[in-house]
Amino acid sequence: MVGMMGSAAITKKRGGYTNTKLHGIMTMTGMLLAGGGFYVIYQNKESMGKNHFTTLHSWGEFTWQLIQLILEKSLNQLLI
Asked: Which of 8, 36, 37, 64 could form a disulfide with 27 if both were Cys (CB 3.0 to 4.6 A apart)?
């Protein structure tokens, strides 16, 4: 996930239509990978019978993913 998002930012800075489209694809892929990781961690805790969101780290990551999703959707609306 981190590799996709970092590479997406660098690609966007290069400019141009193709790089902008590639940036969007890479960003969305990074978000999907992060969502997949969240699902795996959640299901693992569920299968072990442990509580979810018990640390500041888990709440911070959940909040960060929501912020990224909201920003991605709102920026897409502005660009369309």
From this structure: 8
DSSP secondary structure letters along the chain: -HHHHHHHHHHHHT-SHHHHHHHHHHHHHHHHHHHHHHHHHHHHHHHHTPPSS-SHHHHHHHHHHHHHHHHHHHHHHHH-
**Rounded CA separation 47/26 (Å):** 31
Overall pTM > 0.90:
no
Alpha-carbon distance 2 to 33, whole Å?
A: 9
- Digit-coded pLDDT (tens) for 39-80: 999 999 999 999 988 999 989 988 988 888 888 777 666 655
pLDDT tens across 25-43, in order? 888 898 888 889 889 999 9
Token pair listed for 42: 């959640």
